[in-house]
Amino acid sequence: MGVFESHGDVGSPKLAGSAAWNPASQEYTLSGAGSNLWFASDECHFLWKKMKGDFILRTRVEFIGQGAIAHRKIGWMVRQSLAPDAPYADTAEHGSGLTSLQFRRAAGSNTEEITLGITNADVLQFERRGNTYIFSAARYGEPFTSAQLTNLDLGDDVYAGLFICSHTADVVEKAIFRDVRIIRPAPIGFVPYHDYIGSVLEILDVQSGKLAQIYESEEPFEAPNWTREGHALIYNLSGGGENRGRLSRFDLASKTPLILNTGPCVRNNNDHVLSFDGTMLGISDQSEGHGGKSRVFTVPVQGGTPQAITPLTPSYCHGWSPSGKFLVYTGGRDGKYDIYKIRSDGKGLEARLTENSGLNDGPEFTPDGKHIYFNSTRSGTMQIWRMKPDGQGQEQVTHDEFNNWFPHISPDGKWIAFISFSKDVDPKDHPYYKHVYLRLLPIQGGKPKVIAYVYGGQGTMNVPSWSPDSARIAFVSNTR
């Protein structure tokens, strides 16, 4: 049953339900009848896992067929017990398009409801924070709409999972649940950059939005670069393990990581980038040998002896020019962070490309070499900007309420992928362990589209992580 423990009918539906897990497609199929999830007693089919503490549940949902009753329901459910009259809360997507948070506060009491201001949602997220339940729903491609229920005490031990109810005793309905995620968030009071939780390596099909989890580890890792031949991903290890600061090459065929030799540069952060020809790796190392502040080096992609590039610190590497002759990076000089360019052979002085009053970060060349995209707070929030390779013609690309970081241009030059933090995050910060969106924007302009709903942030997509064919993106999500 995949991530779940068991399944069965709640109540006594006239027709039995079923559940199936397809490990190849990572999809769940549920069928079930049941007169209703309402009033003082429930009938449905429930696929569940026993859970404690706080958690986040997320999935994409789809009914199969037209359905017999408009108020058939699918979604997430959290129950105090499997008894039909048990207290519970659920995220109900109805066949009619109605989206609501339903709940029963005491055994045998009538169900209550909070209706969300969205219809026909197909992305459902349910979060528990103590006795508070937050339901977030979206039509795929759009941001979440949310509602919150407080002071619902279901106990610490609960049954959490997916459900289906046909809303009629005489019909069995069916639904598919894709991209199912059960996430254990960072605990309250964790200390950023000191306390860490585990990492999950995911691959996103950009056009369909389909996700695949391919690797997970209790030892946190960040920022996957996709190698140019398409066979591997290179990421940095973080957290407090013995390999913290090392780079690792993850083979996509065998699903195994191998530490990459970077000589004395063994405190690498998540600012590393491949050259366009795939032969070299630009890294940002903060070993004690240079004061513990980040400095840019280059090293052969298969590993080897690093060459120092930037004499000044801190410097964080983000991009190569298509010719391979230049590196662009973020430099902290006299307490101010700007975009700089330097020759990739380490000869010559750095050239400052931005000089405004805001924070500038994340520079990356387009494949044709005509522009450098970056993010900047100069307009208030963190937004995506671009400029010519000499720093001229700086213009704002995104204009919305989110804080947008790290623009990554697809290898075919048609798309910009970036990560978006909510407006309650400091524009100058890109913290760990937040609800974030991965978004996609045509390079010619338009409205950004959400392509992934993620619990992550720092280290999720700091580096160019497009597949060579521009069809997929690798990224890191987080869970305890």
Report a brief summary of the structure:
With 480 residues, the chain is mainly beta. It has strands at residues 6-10, 18-22, 27-32, 37-38, 41-42, 44-51, 55-64, 73-79, 88-94, 99-104, 112-115, 123-129, 132-138, 145-149, 158-165, 173-183, 198-205, 211-217, 221-226, 232-237, 247-251, 256-259, 273-274, 280-285, 295-300, 307-308, 315-320, 326-333, 336-343, 351-352, 360-365, 372-376, 383-387, 395-396, 403-409, 415-421, 434-442, 449-456, 472-479. The protein contains no helices and 39 strands.
Q: Based on the coordinates given, report the CATH architecture of the largest domain.
A: 6 Propeller
State the total count of DSSP E strands: 39
CATH class of the largest domain: Mainly Beta
Rg over alpha carbons: 24 Å
Mean pLDDT: 97
Order of strands across the main sheet: 1-6-15-8-9-10-11
| Secondary-structure class | mainly beta
In angstroms, what separates the terminal alpha carbons? 21 Å
Q: Give the proportion of residues in helices.
A: under 10%
Looking at CATH, the homologous superfamily of the largest domain is TolB, C-terminal domain
List unreliable stretches of 5+ residues: none
Briefly note the CATH topology name of the largest domain. Neuraminidase
Number of domains: 2
Describe the structure.
This protein folds into two domains: 6-183, Sandwich (Jelly Rolls), CATH 2.60.120.200; 198-479, TolB, C-terminal domain (Neuraminidase), CATH 2.120.10. 0% of the residues lie in helices and 49% in strands. It has strands spanning 6-10, 18-22, 27-32, 37-38, 41-42, 44-51, 55-64, 73-79, 88-94, 99-104, 112-115, 123-129, 132-138, 145-149, 158-165, 173-183, 198-205, 211-217, 221-226, 232-237, 247-251, 256-259, 273-274, 280-285, 295-300, 307-308, 315-320, 326-333, 336-343, 351-352, 360-365, 372-376, 383-387, 395-396, 403-409, 415-421, 434-442, 449-456, 472-479. A hairpin with a 5-residue loop joins strand 23 and strand 24 (280-285). It is elongated, with a radius of gyration of 24 Å. 49% of the residues are buried.
